[in-house]
Write a structure and sequence with these properties.
The complex is a heterotrimer. Chain A is mainly α. Chain A is about 75% helix and about 5% strand. Chain A has 14 helices and 2 strands, in the order βααααααααααααααβ. Chain A has helices at about 10-35, 40-50, 55-80, 90-105, 110-140, 145-165, 195-215, 215-225, 230-235, 240-265, 270-275, 280-290, 295-320, 325-345; strands at about 1-5, 345-350. Chain B folds into 2 domains: about 5-235, Rossmann fold, CATH 3.40.50.300; about 255-490, Rossmann fold. Chain B is built from 17 helices and 22 strands. Chain B has a 6-stranded mixed beta sheet, with helices on both faces. In chain B, α13 (about 365-380) crosses α14 (about 395-410) and α14 (about 395-410) runs parallel beside α15. Chain B starts with a strand and ends in a 6-residue tail after the last helix. By secondary structure, chain C is mainly α. Chain C contains 11 helices and 2 strands, in the order ααααββααααααα. The N and C termini of chain C lie far apart (about 60 Å). Chain C has a single domain, classed as ABC transporter involved in vitamin B12 uptake, BtuC, CATH 1.10.3470.10. The chains are: A mainly alpha, B alpha/beta, C mainly alpha. Chains in contact: A-B, A-C, B-C.
């Protein structure tokens, strides 16, 4: 007879094993999907591996790591503060818009352009994130729906701009803006597409967020607010302020990710799905896979980056559609939830 | 086994992570009997009854209903066996009518007039009238309890468990309830009357079983025992009936409430023009059955609820926000787990919950100082815990209460708001808490809000009684006794 | 047809895609389960309906397949939310992603494929000529069915014992359990119903309304349906008003195109309106009375010591 007992506390080992089981489960689900397309899953995975583990392949992983980490660690701040920020995708796109504006339409000295781009893109993300935050704090409106709606709005805004007023004058009717001036380019490591200033920012962000969340009064307040509004107010904390600040941080980081994409990789603004293939959503996976721990997010972001890079490879070599990314994302999340269940309970033989 | 025995529980043991709730308990209920289950808060009475009703499964032991061994896996099983539970706090759906709440009891698919009339009929029969089409949130706690009783009766329960039924009733409602219970006994039903209130147990029951720390200490015929003996059995020693409080001359005013009007969640007025003041050096106790506006009053005073009319002045300044409240006052809430602690945060963080601002510099938390402070509190207040870093849910109820007490009473506050501070605590902890609050009077004013009449009488220098949102009267503690206050709690003004 | 009738007809058509999933989600949420996976379920329903109709040439079979697909996804969510008692928000989100992703994968080969066997519209004679409301009677079979479904679901929820069980479980599961109601069973049933209806909503898009398979067919309508649930105060009758309102927004979107508004900007209309509606609705004092089921989103543990 198997008896199910609730585990009182999960040791670190249990937590890690849980995550690994989840990943395996997700890979299993993907294998099933491959098979239904008549694709040999072993072939699929080995293709992913072999192509990723080349120098160029690895650099692609790092390239994808940047927006994933920025979005992911920002989302950790939001989630831990009790805000279900599903809007990182939109915040990233708004950051991209602001970056484009500063790159193409501001008449300022060249050496100030890049710093201003970074500031403005973060600002754009902040504003886009503060709207749902304000609506939740003041009017108790469900932030999941609002942030999602704002994703769609942001995406439409980008498309409006690239098909309309910002359409490139030098490009013949294609849906993108002119190429940015070089003063707006983020430098890259030669031979790769890695825009290293943002890479640096992403890495620093992980540690900074850890520091804020666990070593400062602000972080303490955010964590308490994330657990219970009642207890937070009872303790004399400003719930609204904590929510707004946490969303601002999350939005700022996502906005920076947007700047990274347009100034580091594309060097122009294109239609929305070309700028971000769902980094905002994958960021949610990064956050959850890391167990909402900022330092662990580096690992989970690397892993998801590897998966996404692999997904690109699969799309190209096996002809699968872009939906495969969403399938991965969904499968991993579900697996995380299911395996977390096993981590919560101990199975004993009686 | 004779047919006279309705319920027989043998060797019941139930262990929770931190505590042995029931330890080899034997309990028996006969037909046509009112059997009292007496014990302190935390003695295991509710757990035992939850086992009988199928909410918990015992780790060891057997249960026999009318001589047959049974396995009660859920409330549904219990109901099928003729067991009805009237819980301490009514479990009804607020947003639905009485009839809708009772709908699961009737076979038909659509709710109609015939059933509504039947509900009225049964209610009248037992002397507990209600309006079947009223919305639950419009009813008083006493009326809600009637519905719970009706539920059990409609199901044809042979065995009724009443869990601390009189906590939410006015004295008048209590006598109506007792009449109804006696009628049920006359019909041959068996009633288990769970309580910690001795006078009532002595008045109502035929036999009484006393539980202490999860064990049965005695089962006696009520006629053959008395209050002192029962107290000794419940507590294990004689209890000081009245404290001798040192006289303190009250100082300046720390809290003043003027003509306070506060809305409740449904848009009605919960507090209607309340005025009183609390001075340093005194304990001002507010007695009253819960549901008369106390919750809203406390929320207003602590800054968590809007003031519609009137003012609250704390420490000379008008109150505008909970942050301001926290600067000079502390709050011991009755809802410990829902409000006073965050179970998933560590003990250290919980101890810092309301005082963390003192340990911050430029926004950073000074953890070393915080740890020192926390360790000091743990020692002084005797908080038993695995470690400072352990999550708070690992602490027992008593230690959680101590944690909150430690945190709220060690800061330099001029006003302490204590709401049912000893709810659910055992005698030793209760006495500790009382002693502490009395000591705190020296440096602060204490506002005590409690349903526990004894607590109010023991601690307060002045007593106000709240009824339907108003203060019926304010007495000095010398003029007050349980009878007077009991009447006032029911709305009767006594001269 | 006169212009008003035609307008109403289009509005109702567009609104049906929102009405069906909204109705299902009302039941799920009334029982206390928040299912954010509606978007994904709709997407999967749309593609499976299209695919199976394409293969079997039987559109009604397509409807059944879509409902089953919805049931399947909803079952996963129900298992995670009710039996495992995990985080309902994350589970729903994951299902949305999974559903949308799967629909994209399955649908890749179906893009641009014409479907001859759809559920077309038919007019109801006589009724269709009534001024103004005649538009309600120029619809396809699924929309007509939705009229009955609305009334049926409203009646069950508020006038029968089953409805009392559903509402009890969502307001106070502890009370329901103490009353002998099987909380899990009720929640499972409502969640599965929600999934089936959401699947049907997706099928409606691909084999009745458009009809075609387009990548990203649902375009956030599942999320709008979720907002609708809030806006309709969890009442099937009010959901009708909300659905047709948003259907109207969609029609407006197309009607404005010839006037030179940029298509992407027009596309923002439904999303902006959703936010606007949520704002308007939240500040109303009615919210207290018409608010969410109290136990929404919270897993139920029997005997939990709060």
């Amino acid at each position: 007879m198997i008896r199910i007992e609730e585990r009182m506390e999960q040791s670190l080992i249990v937590k890690i094993v849980t995550k690994i089981v989840a990943i395996l489960l997700a890979l299993g689900i993907s294998a099933v999907i491959f098979m239904s397309y008549g694709i040999n899953p072993i072939y699929a995975f080995s293709t992913m591996f072999s192509k990723s583990l080349t120098p160029y392949g690895l650099s692609e992983v790092v390239t994808k790591f940047i927006p994933l980490e920025l979005c992911g660690v920002g989302l950790i701040v939001a989630f831990k503060s009790g805000m279900w920020n599903i809007g990182a995708e939109g915040q990233l796109l708004i950051g991209a818009i602001m970056a484009t504006w500063a790159a193409l339409f501001l008449d300022i000295p060249d050496f100030t352009r890049l710093p201003l781009i970074l500031v403005l893109s973060a600002l754009g993300g902040i504003i886009w994130a503060l709207i749902p935050a304000f609506l939740k704090a003041k009017l108790e409106i469900n932030e999941v729906i609002v942030t999602l709606m704002m994703n769609y709005i942001a995406s439409s805004l980008v498309n409006y701009l690239v098909y309309g007023p910002w359409k490139g004058s030098k490009e013949w009717g294609f849906p993108y803006t002119d190429k940015f001036p070089e003063s707006a380019w983020l430098p890259i490591i030669p031979g790769t597409r890695i825009h290293w200033p943002t890479l640096l920012m992403a890495s620093v962000a992980a540690f900074t967020v850890f520091f804020i969340m666990f070593k400062t009064t602000l972080g303490f307040e955010m964590r308490v607010c994330g657990q219970s509004r009642r207890v937070a107010e009872y303790s004399g904390m400003n719930y609204m302020k904590a929510l707004m600040v946490s969303m601002a941080i999350s939005g700022a980081l996502a906005g920076l990710a947007g700047a990274g994409e347009v100034c580091g990789i594309h060097r122009r603004l294109r239609y929305a799905s070309a700028i971000s293939s769902g980094y905002g959503y994958s960021g949610i996976i990064v956050a959850w896979l890391s167990g909402l721990h900022p330092i662990a997010s580096i690992l989970s972001a690397l892993f998801i980056a590897f998966l996404l890079a692999g997904g690109d490879i699969l799309q190209v070599s096996l002809g699968l559609s872009a939906g495969i990314v969403n399938v991965f994302n969904g499968a991993i999340l579900l697996s995380l939830l299911i395996s977390e269940f096993f981590g919560r309970y101990r199975f004993r033989w009686k | 086994m004779d047919r006279e025995t309705l319920v027989k529980m043998v060797g019941i043991t139930k262990i929770f992570p931190n505590v042995v709730a029931n330890d080899s308990v034997n309990f028996e209920l006969k037909r046509g009997e009112i059997h009292g289950l007496l014990g302190e808060n935390g003695a295991g009475k509710t757990t035992l009854m939850n086992i009988l009703y199928g909410i918990y499964k015992p780790d060891k032991g057997e249960i026999y209903i009318e001589g047959k061994p049974v396995n009660i896996k859920s409330p549904k099983d219990a109901i099928g066996l003729g067991i009805g539970m009237v819980p301490q706090f009514p479990e009804l759906v607020e947003n639905m009518t009485v009839a809708e709440n009772l709908a699961p009891l009737f076979p038909e698919k659509i709710l109609g007039k015939k059933r509504i009339n039947e509900i009225h009929r049964i209610a009248e029969e037992y002397g507990l009238p209600i309006d079947a089409e009223a919305m639950i949130y419009d009813l008083s706690l006493g009326e809600k309890q009637r519905i719970e009783i009706l539920k059990a009766l409609i199901r044809g329960a042979k065995i009724l468990i009443l869990d601390e039924p009189t906590t939410v009733l006015t004295p008048n409602e209590v006598s109506l309830l007792f009449k109804a219970i006696r009628k049920m006994r006359g019909e041959g039903k068996g009633i288990i009357f769970v309580s910690h209130k001795l006078p009532e147990v002595l008045e109502l029951t035929d036999r009484v079983t006393v539980l202490r720390k999860g064990r049965v200490v005695a089962t006696l015929n009520t006629k053959e025992t008395n209050e002192d003996e029962l107290v000794k059995l419940m507590v294990g020693r004689a209890v000081l009936r009245r404290y001798v409080k040192e006289k303190i001359v009250p100082g300046e005013e720390v809290l003043r409430v003027e003509n306070l009007h506060v809305f409740n969640d449904k848009g009605g007025l919960a507090v209607k023009g309340l005025s009183f003041s609390v001075r340093k050096g005194e304990v001002f106790g507010i007695a009253g059955v819960s549901g008369n506006g106390q919750k809203e009053l406390i929320e207003a005073i602590t800054g968590l609820r809007r003031v519609e009319k009137g003012r609250i002045v704390i420490g000379g300044r008008e109150l505008t926000s909970p942050i301001q409240f926290r600067r000079i006052a502390s709050h011991i809430p009755d809802d410990r787990v829902g409000m006073g602690v965050l179970p998933s945060l560590s003990v250290l963080e919980n101890l810092a919950l309301t005082s963390y601002k003192r340990f911050s510099k430029f926004g950073f938390l000074k953890f070393n100082e915080l740890e020192q402070y926390a360790n000091g509190l743990v020692d002084k207040y005797n908080i038993i815990m695995p470690s400072l870093r352990a999550p708070a849910w690992q602490l027992s109820g008593g230690n959680l209460a101590r944690l909150i007490l430690a945190r709220e009473t060690s800061a330099e506050c001029s006003l302490i708001v204590a709401v049912h501070p000893t709810f659910g605590l055992d005698v030793a902890s209760t006495e500790e808490t009382w002693k502490l609050l009395l000591e705190l009077r020296r440096k602060a004013g204490v506002l005590l809000v409690s349903e526990d009449l004894e607590e109010i009488l023991q601690l307060s220098d002045r007593i106000g009684v709240m009824y339907k949102g108003e203060l019926i009267d304010v007495l000095d503690s010398e003029e007050a006794d349980a009878e007077k206050i009991g009447l006032m709690m029911g709305g009767v003004k006594v001269d | 047809m006169d212009p008003i009738t035609e307008l109403i007809s289009m509005v109702v058509s567009a609104g049906t895609a929102l009405l069906l999933p909204a109705l299902g989600e009302i039941y799920a949420e009334r029982s206390g389960v928040l299912n954010l996976g509606v978007e994904g379920i709709m997407a999967l329903g749309a593609v499976t309906a299209f695919y199976s109709t394409y293969l079997t040439k039987e559109p009604f079979l397509g409807l059944i397949v879509a409902a089953l697909a919805g049931l399947l996804l909803a079952f996963i969510h129900a298992f995670i939310s009710i039996s495992i008692r995990s985080n309902q928000v994350v589970s729903g989100l994951a299902l949305s992603m999974l559903g949308v992703g799967l629909s994209s994968l399955i649908g890749k080969s179906l893009i641009g494929v014409p479907l001859k066997y759809t559920i077309g519209r038919f007019e109801i004679p006589v009724l269709k000529d009534i001024p103004i409301i005649g538009g309600f009677f120029v619809q396809n079979a699924l929309t007509y069915a939705s009229y009955f479904i609305v009334v049926l679901l409203w009646f069950i929820l508020f006038k029968t014992k089953i409805g009392v069980y559903v509402r009890m479980v969502g307001e106070n599961p502890k009370a329901a359990d103490a009353a002998g109601v099987n909380v899990s069973a009720v929640r499972y049933a409502c969640t599965l119903l929600g999934g089936a209806l959401a699947g049907l909503g997706g099928a409606y898009l691909s084999i009745c309304y458009t009809p075609a398979w387009i990548e990203g067919m649902t375009a956030g309508q599942g999320w709008i349906a979720l907002a609708l649930v809030i806006f309709s105060a969890w009442n099937p009758l009010y959901a009708v008003v909300g659905s047709y309102l948003f259907g109207g927004v969609r029609v407006l979107q197309y009607r404005l195109q010839p006037y030179g508004f940029s298509p992407p900007l027009l596309q923002t209309l439904p999303y902006v309106s959703t936010i606007a509606v949520l704002i308007v609705f939240s500040s109303s004092r009615l919210r207290r009375r018409l608010g969410a089921p109290s136990a929404l989103g919270k897993p139920y543990y029997r005997g939990a010591k709060t």
